[in-house]
Every structure is written in C-alpha cells, then in structure tokens.
Amino acid sequence: MTTTTAAIDRERAIRADVQGELRRAIDLDELLTPGQHEVDTARRVIADRIAAADRQAQTLGHPPLDDPHGLARRLLDDLLGLGPLQPLLDDPAVEEIIINGPRRVFAISDGRKRLTDVVLDDDDALLRLVRRAIGPLGRRLDEASPMVDARLPDGSRLNAVIAPLTSGSPHVTIRKFLLRARTLDDLVGLGTLSREAADFLSAAVRAGLNILISGGTGSGKTTCLNALGAAVSGLDERVITIEETAELQLESVLPDCVALEARAPNVEGAGGVPIRQLVKNALRMRPTRIIVGEVRGDEALDMLTAMNSGHEGSMCTAHANGPREALSKLRTYALMAGEALPAQAVTEMIAEAIQLVVHLRLDAETHRRVVSSIYEVTGLEGDAVAGSEIFRLEGGRLERTGIRPRRESRLVAAGFAGLERRPS
Questions:
Q1: Do residues 319 and 377 both lie within one domain?
Q2: What is this structure's pTM?
C-alpha cells in the first residue's frame, strides 16, 4: 500500500469516526442549516478524532498525520461547507465552477476552462452537497423539483439540474460573485476599454443618455454596468437598481441608491416577486434613474416606458450577439408583456428610449473581456431601429470610427472633449 493510499484510507477512517461521533451528539440533518452550537460541536469532534488518530499512530509505530490542520479543514468542509468544492469556492481566481457529475469538475479562471482534480464519491455525494447549499435558502431539489436556481450567502449563483430532466448525473453550475472593476478607470486598466471610449461613456452617463449593455454569457456585462453606474454623480440623483440576483455594488458608492432584488417563489409556488413588479414599484420611489441588471422578459416594456417618461440616464443589460441583435431582442421581450401593443409602436419606443448600446465580448485568443462596439441609436429607418457605430474594435483596440454622434452637443456639455478632434 502506497503512502498516498494509506493517507486516503486513514482520512476516510477518521471521517467515518467523526460522522459516527456526531451522529451520537447531534442530528446530522441539523448540519444542513448549522447554528453556532453545531459548528462548535463539529470542530470539537474533529479535533478530538484527529488527536486520537495521531495517538494511535504513535502507539502502533506508524507515521503521524502529514497535515492535521488541512485534514481538519477538509472534514469541516465536508460537514458544513461544500466538501471538495469548497477550495474552488474559496479561490479568488476561480470565476465559475461547472460540475458534470462527480468526476468531471471544471473551473473557469481568466476566461479559461480547465478540468480540475476535484473528485466526489458518487452522484449521491454531489446531490447532498447541493442540498446542503440550498437548504438554508428554503429551496429543494428532488424528483418533484428537479431544477433549482439559488443565490448562495456569498452572492454566488448556483444552478442545478437532476433526473428526470437529465439522463444521468446531477449537473451543477456555480457562478461566483466577482466584481473585478468598480469604475470606468478600472476597465481601462484591464484593457476592456480605451481611455477615449471611457471618457465618452462617462460623459454619456453625465449627459443622461439611456444605455443598453449587451454581450454573451461571461462577457462582463454586469461589471460594465456597475462601472457605468458608478459614474453617476450628484446629490440630485436617486438611483434604483433592480436585479434577479444582487451583484451590483452601487449602494456603497452613490449617495442615494436603493437596491431591489427579485424573489423566487417558495416550494409551494407562492411569494415570488418578479423583476417586472419591481420595475413598476421603482417608478413610485421617485427615481431619477433606474438600472436593471438584466432584461430578459416582459419587464422590458416597463423599462422602456420608464426611459420614455423622464428617467433619463437609465441602464440595463441584455444577452445578445451584437448591438442590433440586442435592440431586436429588447423588442421581442417587450412584445411578450401581453399588452397587445402593435410591433411598430414598440419599435418606436425603443428608438426613442435607447440612445447607446455598449457591446462586450470575450476575446477568443486572449480570453480578455473587451468592449467591441459603442453603437448610437439614431432613430427609425422604415420599420427598423437605425444607428451607427461611434467606436469599433479594430486590431485589438477600441477606436473612433469618425462618425459624429447625434447627441454631440449633450456630450460636449457633459465634458467630453474628444469630439473636438477627428480620429486620425
């Protein structure tokens, strides 16, 4: 038996002893939602069993435990955390964790996906970890509710799907709450924006232009939205942020900001508060601007209505492959609202409400999140929303296209001096 195998077997034996001792001391189901008593009991039992194992090893002439502190941490993670997944959750470089069954655990760092050496015992062990994570949130995952989407206490978002919706093992995705840039200057430092484009967007925020941020999954939409929101200034501004899962951190940087978060229905299907209801309620809170973390349903109509009714400088994000596609999806979402509005009327609302579209993408070669286009909506052409690119990504750098924006006077008044010169 190799040393590694012996260490693994010894750790399994200690884990079994700890679980047996805890089973006699407390109800193990209480570890799904542990209080301080359960935490203290688990720590004491783990310390006692590790000390006993060391004494036994000395008596039998076996080598001592290599890393008793690491073993104690792993055992505590197994009991109170997410077991083998906990180190990935604790690693600040890991952005997302993808679990395709107990033996295929991937981690995404800096936009790159890698297969980790994390292995769980079996499907049941993975399912227990997920249930431990969602138990304190009042959520369930079983055959009657085989899909769950939940926000963990640290802000991470967990999605899990099990049979009968999958053909095999449970599939889990954990998107961690990471906000690497808080301002437009931070985005410049990360290479997401050029300095001139950042100055342009800062002036656009100050000028009160309504902005739609678009891009694919993981392209940095929320981070960009947070940076744009941080550019709002003045005590006269009252900003209401609305998100399905709270990620923006504008309450800490803006003098008058209220963060609202949607609530999913409980296991009985009651008590849910959708984003659309929050948008409607926000209009009664005397906001100057409304920021919606992600528009992906009928709330688009209420957002457009707010933008067209005096709430200049409002912002939202949408999943899309480009600026024009984002505007088209916004139209589709608004038509889902069931208000029986003519499609042309919704198109006109979009042309009047949205002034800029900021599109981001994840660069396939560098795995860097970049703004690839800043697109100005100029009005209608026939039955379609028209516009032109003010900035475009060329040769790896976001450059002016030479087209002068229709809102030039507002941008200049807001302090953008770049329009005084044409790009070379």
A1: yes
A2: 0.79
